[in-house]
Amino acid sequence: MHIELKRGSSTKLYMQIALTIADRIRSGLIEPGTRLPSVRKMTADLGVSLVTVTKAYAELEAIQLVRCSQGKGCYVRGTEPSDQMSREAAAHSKMSTSDSGVSLNWQMTLVDYLPRAQLWRHFDASPQVRYELHMSAIQPELLPTRDIINSAYHLSSDHAERMAAYGSFQGDWELRQTFATHFASRGLQVTPERMLITSGAQQGIDLVARTFIGPGDVVYMEAPTYTGAIDVFTSRGAKIITVPMDNEGMRIDLLTRLCDTYPPKLIYTIPTYHNPTGVTMSTQRRAQLLNIAQSYHCLILEDDPFADLYFREPPPASIKSMDSAGHVVYIKSFSKVLSPGCRVACAIADGSVLTRLVAAKSTADLGSPLLTQKALQAYIQEQYDTYVHQLREELYSRLCVASEVLEQYATNEMQWRLPEGGLNLWLELQGNMDMHELHRQSLAAGVSFLPGSACYVAESDTTSLRICFTVTSSEALKQGLRILCTVIERVSSQQAGATADRLPLI
Amino acid sequence: MHIELKRGSSTKLYMQIALTIADRIRSGLIEPGTRLPSVRKMTADLGVSLVTVTKAYAELEAIQLVRCSQGKGCYVRGTEPSDQMSREAAAHSKMSTSDSGVSLNWQMTLVDYLPRAQLWRHFDASPQVRYELHMSAIQPELLPTRDIINSAYHLSSDHAERMAAYGSFQGDWELRQTFATHFASRGLQVTPERMLITSGAQQGIDLVARTFIGPGDVVYMEAPTYTGAIDVFTSRGAKIITVPMDNEGMRIDLLTRLCDTYPPKLIYTIPTYHNPTGVTMSTQRRAQLLNIAQSYHCLILEDDPFADLYFREPPPASIKSMDSAGHVVYIKSFSKVLSPGCRVACAIADGSVLTRLVAAKSTADLGSPLLTQKALQAYIQEQYDTYVHQLREELYSRLCVASEVLEQYATNEMQWRLPEGGLNLWLELQGNMDMHELHRQSLAAGVSFLPGSACYVAESDTTSLRICFTVTSSEALKQGLRILCTVIERVSSQQAGATADRLPLI
């Protein structure tokens, strides 16, 4: 197991070890039932003291991820049958012998560089889930899939030979021209030369990270933030510093102070209808953020999947539209709004930052498929604006449904704030809700949500959760939310009861 | 500029610095005309002595990549107007100011982690090239693009809603079932659970590297080998050790001895119709290679794009088909043989090696696009075997054309060996051919080839080159090869003349 130890860090070595192993267990990368390396072996592998490893294992035992016993060693604990992880564990254990029955246990010694993969863990819902509210997406019936397929067909069969070739690493020229027109109508003047087509925003984030972020580089993110981005920056060994948010987005005052001590290499932000909270960063803060980037000669990674999905008024101008000195890499995904199955996003960057991203793209996959690029090009040119206008109204009606259900059924513990756009609703629960138990009971009752902890770097004990109000039908949304409210009430009262039980009986 | 220095390595520090900078200059990542950081700054940044940096810069000057002058510093040299790099340089210099005319020079201080991107440099040919023999691909007219587009259309419009969703990270289940049947008919028994769909073989190699290879990990490769794989392992900071080849492929006797000193973490091989040499590894060596992997508990990455493209007899069984203990990650690309534009390949792995690759795929891009997967699925199911049967005959006829031209026009310097399958022909030139000059004159005469140096890790002064005999029409292949022979003769005689000139005139 590779653990990147940062000596001289404010996090003690034993905690670094414990946190890394915890991330791997929670991500399902170490299976339940697995025996951790002995304290002695770990000591030798990492070049730390016996005490450090012993404390790390004790920490893991304290947070109930492993069970240690004298002489037998420490084993990763199992999970409830209803849990996603245990389904993975079942799949793993099938895999621990090969088809021919030979043991694959030697693979446990194979060091890897995957410290965390939370996105993977939280992507699929359990089979018993009838109301999938955990995934941030648009109900497939609302997406123009048939039209996109038709466009792809006509455009590509007219130019079959061209489709056969490798495309440009940077992405199809005509698609980039189409995007230029698209962005111009939204206040962002950009030429096709400044764009790179990526396989979804996820790949865009990953390319920026693999190009510019290495061990110890300082990356700032909002807390909470997008799970998949945390996975990416963690995998590069970044020193991630999170900045709390308020109603205007990232707390720039706090960021400024933090930067004094830890100068940034990159600031990752989702300024518009932020995932998961739905908050939009004010124009003033956007300008301040850009100022900071200019002062520190650092990059801003502006992740913008939702800008077109406003309910009343268009959002503030993008940070990229104010950027004259090439500090912002802007990533606009068309996956969510048009077609998750096409995996097309556009990254906009300047100067050698762009050049270097194109080089990274060539190493990563030689460029995105032409077929899907062509499919979106024709559609965006001709039909996108009409489509997205209707879509906005439909999404807003879903938000109203969610709001009504919550007004009627929410318990006192629940707090929320309706977003001005996007797909997500962030619920904060007051008191000491046992989120693990809530998640378990909710899944058992057929409703999935994204536990807030997946949106924090350190998996803190947050009592928040994200639901998506656009991924199911209105009817399913109503049902699912009502059930969720009931489960929250039940878990809350069980906890209160449990607490009461422990009071002295006098 | 981030330079990963390996203290205690057999390569001296100043050479490590020089090689890294050289790679970046050759890859176009540092533009012609750029001033390198001052010796003093570099000394401080890297924590090495002034002498070390001075020697590194002197080395770069000796190999004519930079020009240093007292008091002014060292500048990256420009290149001929006919050169690919200078077109990039032109694009770069346009980019060194933003659209609004603001300087982007601050970006030069932005450290990145991209040590090499040769693939990117050698991908596109210059505009004056009429005979593109540098790229390993099949002439678009021979590919079944129209049929694939039709399949995609019918299959996807029948299931439009499904196409709208995110697919599985691991790849479409039905495509994996189709692949299982496909591989079974080729002696490789594998279930869909053991597969991961990737965006081309390039992404497969990259996922294996990012998951299992980190700084200093020992990776063995054939010398020469696939440029894109060198880029990937270099970018991970691997300690790459190359093993010479003979007529039976990688010299396992040498590999065995090297492994005694440097135990392998991964062995990368293209055993069948090797790229670039065309050599096929014998069955005995395949078995020996697997034995080594078992002894050292390491991985073999078996890259197999060409197995279906044999000319007379099918190639030996894949190493994966002998692998019972999960040591081999097998990557089969369908890009070359069916559709470079679709970017679909299949990785086969076992146990937690597979699980970890799936996790890496989720972080990299959330899974490949469904549309392109569906497109290939229907085609492979119904038409692939008939298609590939005809294709083999056509490709063989191209090889015969190339062989005839070479027999007739080759100069005494040229040596080659006809491959039993695949797309590539490797030419070795005897004597001290100036390959840079040959490449320049060949491009000027309208013929591109891949300089052999791109296929070596250390960019050694090899006098070999790769041409692809399947990427153009037969007629263009004839013309191009004839011109190439003429250019080789001319450069050779110019050099002989130049040498003669330098002889004492007595």
From TrEMBL, chains A, B:
Molecular-function GO terms, alphabetical: DNA binding; DNA-binding transcription factor activity; pyridoxal phosphate binding; transaminase activity
InterPro entries named among the record's database cross-references: Aminotransferase_I/II_large, HTH_trans_reg/aminotransferase, PyrdxlP-dep_Trfase, PyrdxlP-dep_Trfase_major, PyrdxlP-dep_Trfase_small, Tscrpt_reg_HTH_GntR, WH-like_DNA-bd_sf, WH_DNA-bd_sf
Cofactor(s) in the UniProt record: pyridoxal 5'-phosphate
Gene3D superfamilies: Aspartate Aminotransferase, domain 1, Type I PLP-dependent aspartate aminotransferase-like (Major domain), Winged helix-like DNA-binding domain superfamily/Winged helix DNA-binding domain
Domain HTH gntR-type: 11-79
Keywords: Aminotransferase, DNA-binding, Pyridoxal phosphate, Transcription, Transcription regulation, Transferase
UniProt key word Transcription: yes
Similarity comment: In the C-terminal section; belongs to the class-I pyridoxal-phosphate-dependent aminotransferase family.
Complexes and interactors: Homodimer.
Protein's name according to its UniProt entry: DNA-binding transcriptional regulator, MocR family, contains an aminotransferase domain
